[in-house]
């Protein structure tokens, strides 16, 4: 099992090489002489016992992470939890899963067929978290999933890897708020997720968030390569609670719109 930092390094390498190559440019634009602090990463999966949220959480729990908040996104048919490490410098981890049983019989059949291909022994340890697809899928099946659930099609096409990393805006001297970060990125050619407004949340919920729209990346299917939405970069500003501590949770209404960065 990797150490915490080693695991995040491998997740980062997979993310910048396969899912979000523009992350290099985000760093070049925002870094202020020291590495950016990563507020959290997010992982996606199918809500089936073999590959569900609990399976993805296992390596993080082994590293000392603790489950904190849990969230439901009814319209998107998603269930999620976030995990925190006792060391505040370690990134939070947000894991979501598609509640497959709430989807159409057609989608359920496709997802069960994909998950049946997974060798359970490949899910031990933590390497699978950044190894991409553990099943074969053709482009027609990907498109069929996308018609019902963008989330399902994303997981089916990309498999396992960080859906996003997150810049802690609190660290930045040049930017007090997500709005300022958005403008800097816009000025340099990035598209910003405007679902629910370009900044989700504010000081009243102790968290504001924004994100780029996902990079379009090549994905190889048996019947050819397609360019589809991959990973994106998020930006989070956290506010101090009445007890004097920095808010560490997530806001479901905001997270719901951040999911749409891969649309």
Automatic annotation (TrEMBL):
It is an enzyme of class 1 (oxidoreductase). The keyword Oxidoreductase applies. CDD domains: VOC_like (cd16350). Belongs to the 2-oxoadipate dioxygenase/decarboxylase family. GO terms for molecular function: transaminase activity. Gene3D superfamilies: 3.10.180.50. This is 2-oxoadipate dioxygenase/decarboxylase. Its EC number is 1.13.11.93. InterPro entries: HGLS. It comes from Salinivibrio costicola subsp. alcaliphilus. Keywords: Aminotransferase, Dioxygenase, Iron, Oxidoreductase, Transferase. It holds the Pfam family HGLS. The keyword Transferase applies. PANTHER family: 2-OXOADIPATE DIOXYGENASE_DECARBOXYLASE, CHLOROPLASTIC, DUF1338 DOMAIN-CONTAINING PROTEIN. Its cofactor is Fe(2+).
């Amino acid at each position: 099992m990797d150490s915490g930092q080693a695991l995040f390094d491998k997740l980062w390498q997979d993310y910048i090489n396969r899912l979000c190559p523009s992350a290099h440019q985000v760093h070049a634009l925002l870094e202020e002489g020291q590495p950016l602090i990563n507020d959290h990463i997010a992982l996606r999966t199918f809500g089936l016992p073999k590959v569900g949220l609990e399976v993805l959480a296992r390596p993080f729990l082994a590293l000392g992470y603790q489950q904190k908040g849990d969230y439901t996104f009814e319209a998107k048919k998603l269930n999620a939890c976030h995990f925190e490490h006792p060391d505040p410098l370690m990134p939070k981890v947000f894991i979501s899963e598609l509640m497959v049983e709430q989807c159409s019989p057609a989608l359920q059949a496709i997802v069960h067929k994909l998950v049946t291909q997974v060798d359970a022994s490949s899910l031990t340890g933590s390497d699978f978290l950044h190894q991409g697809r553990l099943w074969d899928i053709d482009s027609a099946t990907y498109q069929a999933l996308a018609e019902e659930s963008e989330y399902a099609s994303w997981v089916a096409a990309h498999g396992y890897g960080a859906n996003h990393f997150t810049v802690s805006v609190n660290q930045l001297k040049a930017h007090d708020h997500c709005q300022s970060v958005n403008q800097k990125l816009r000025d340099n050619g990035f598209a910003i997720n405007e679902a629910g407004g370009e900044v989700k949340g504010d000081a009243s919920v102790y968290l504001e968030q924004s994100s780029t729209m996902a990079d379009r990346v090549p994905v190889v299917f048996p019947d050819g390569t397609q360019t589809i939405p991959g990973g994106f970069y998020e930006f989070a500003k956290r506010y101090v609670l009445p007890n004097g501590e920095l808010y560490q949770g997530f806001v479901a209404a905001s997270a719901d719109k951040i999911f749409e960065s891969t649309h």
